[in-house]
Amino acid sequence: MTKPIECHPIQSTDVPVVPIRKRGLELVRDPLLNKGSGFPDSERAALGLRGLVPPRTVGIDDQVGQAMENVRRQQSDLDRYLYLENLHDCNETLYYRVLLSHLNELTPIIYTPVVGQACTQFGHIYQRARGMYFSATDAPHFEEMVGNWPEDAIEVVVVSDGSRILGLGDLGANGMGIPIGKLSLYVIGAGLHPRHTLPVLLDMGTNNEALREDPFYLGQRMPRLTGDAYDEIVEAFMRAVHARWPHALIQFEDFSNDQAFRLLERYRHRMLCFNDDIQGTGAVTLAGILSALRITGQTLTEQRIIFLGAGAAARGIADSIVAGMMGESGIGLEAARRQIWTIDSHGLVTLDRLDSLSEHKRPFAQDSVPHADLIAVIRAVRPTVLIGVSGQPGSFTEEAIREMHRHCERPILFPLSNPTSKAECTAEQAYEWTDGAALFASGSPFPPVAHGERMLVPGQCNNMYIFPGVGQGVVACQASQVTDAMLYVAARTLAGLVGEDSLAMGRLYPDLTLIREISTQIAVAVCELAFAEGLAGIERPDDLDAFIRARLFEPRYVPYEAA
C-alpha cells in the first residue's frame, strides 16, 4: 500500500567520527572529503589544514547561500552549469547539498535541458576528468582498465555511446555529460552515495563530421563503429564491468535506436541492466496516464493511444502501457497492442508496410488503411491519449488538438520531446485549445498557466521520478535483473503518490522536491517484488522501509579524525 507522501528533511543528528588518512592539500583536493571553509578548528589541527583554508569556519548552510549567490550571478545557463560542475569537482558534499536545497531551480541546469547544450560544447568547456572513457582502440585492455578505478563498491554505472544525445543526435565522446548528470540525479533523487557511482562513455567514434574536425574534440576522430565490431566492444565492456562489480546496475543511456533495443534484449537477462530511454520513459509516462485516469474515472484498457514518433521512447512507453493493460484487466497481448497507433515519418505504421519496418515498430503495426498525417489518424481513431516523441516542435497543431477534443472530453496530451524548443506543443496551447480540459504533461518543464479563474499546473514527465528509485531498489536487494513487473510497480507507486489537491490543478506528478521520499517508496516496492519473485540476492530485511532509508546518502559534513 502506498504511504502518504511526506518531506523528510536532511537530518542533523550526531554521526560517527570518520577516520581519515589523507592530510593537508591532499585532503582539500579530494572532492568527496573536502569541506572547503567548513573544517572546524579541531580537524584543522589534527589533519594538517592550518593555513590551507580561510581562517573562519563556515557552516554548510552558509556555504549553500554563497554558492547560490554565485549561481544566480552567472550570465547564462551554460555558465551556471559550469559553476556547478566546478563545485562538483571541488566539494561533492556541498554540491549535493546545494542541489537538494534548490531542486526545482537547479535540476534543469545539471540535466535537461542545459546538459544538452553542455554536451555540444563538451570539448570546449572540459575542466577535469570525471568517470571513465572506454575507447574502441583500448578494448584489449578493458579488464585491466576497470582496475584503474579506485572504488570497489560501485553500485550504478551509467553508460552512453554518445550516439543519440537528447534530441541533438550523434555527439560522440561529448556525450559524457549525460552519464555525469544522470548519476547526479541518482544521488539527489534516491540517495545513492556518490562514491558508489561511475559515469562511463563508450567511445565508438562519431559520424558527426563537424565534431571530428573540431580541434577541441576529445574523442576518437573516426567514423562510428557498426556491426560485429561495435558488438565486440560492447561485449568486452560489459564483461569487464560485470567481472569487477558483479552486483552493479548498468544503465544504458542515449544509445541510438538501432543499438538500444538490441543491447537491452541481449543483456537484460544476463546482467543487472536496463535502458532508461526505453524502460524509464515508459514507466514514468504510464504513471502520468494512470494519474490522469484518476481524474477521468476511466480504466487503462478504455484508452485509445496515438504516438507521433516511433523510436525508442515510443516503443518503451507503448510496452509499458500494454503491460499495464494486461495487469489491470487480463486483456491479451495482441488485444492491448491494438489499442495503440504509431505514426512515423511515413505516416501511420500499418501491416502493409511490415517488410520495410524496423524490428521495434512491427509489434504495433495496425491492420488499417494508410493515413499520411496526424489529423487523419485522429479522425480515424478518435484517441483519448496523444503522445509526442517526434522531436518536431509544433506538430500538435491547433487543428489536431481541437479535432481530438471534439471526441474526447478530457484529452490526455503528452508532448514529450526534449528540450522545450522541440516540444510538440506548449502547455498554454494545450489548455487554450481545449478550454482548460487537457490533462497535460511534457518532457521539459512549462510554468503554470492561468485559465479563467483556475491555475493549471502542467506536469513534467521526468524520468527522474522513476529511475533513481528503481535503481536504489535493485542494488539494495542485489537483484539479478530488472523486470518489466518492477517498472510497472514503480509506475503504479508513483501514480499513487499524487495527492488529490494536485490532481485538482491538473498536476499529474508529485512535487519534485519530494523526490527522496518518492524514490524511497518506489525502491521499497521494487524490493518487495524482487523478494516475491526470487530475484533478490540477499535475505529479506524485517523492515524494508528502514533498510532503504538507512542506505540514503545525506549531504552533510561528518566529523573527521586522523586515522
Distance between the termini: 45 Å
**What is the architecture of the largest domain at the second tier of CATH?**
3-Layer(aba) Sandwich
Name of the level-1 CATH class of the largest domain: Alpha Beta
Compute the gyration radius: what is it?
24 Å
Which oligomeric form is depicted? single chain
Strand content: 5-15%
Residue share in helix: 40-55%
Provide the residue-averaged pLDDT: 94
What's the arrangement of strands in the largest beta sheet? 9-8-7-10-11-12-15
User: Main beta sheet: strand number and arrangement?
Assistant: 7 strands, mixed
Count of DSSP helices?
24
The CATH superfamily of the largest domain is NAD(P)-binding Rossmann-like Domain
Helix/strand/pairing category: alpha/beta
How many E strands? Answer: 16
Q: What name does the CATH topology of the largest domain carry?
A: Rossmann fold
Shape descriptor: globular
In total, the number of domains comes to 3
Uncertain segments:
6-12
Secondary structure layout:
Elements: E1 18-20, H1 24-28, H2 41-46, H3 60-73, H4 77-90, H5 92-101, H6 103-110, H7 114-120, H8 122-125, E2 132-135, H9 142-145, E3 156-160, H10 177-190, E4 197-203, H11 209-213, H12 227-244, E5 249-252, H13 257-267, E6 273-275, H14 276-296, E7 305-308, H15 312-329, H16 333-337, E8 340-344, E9 347-348, H17 374-381, E10 385-388, H18 398-407, E11 412-415, H19 427-433, E12 439-442, E13 449-451, E14 454-456, E15 459-460, H20 467-476, H21 484-496, H22 500-504, H23 515-532, H24 544-550, E16 560-562
Parallel strand pairs: 1-16, 2-4, 3-4, 3-5, 5-6, 7-8, 7-10, 10-11, 11-12, 12-15
Antiparallel strand pairs: 8-9, 13-14
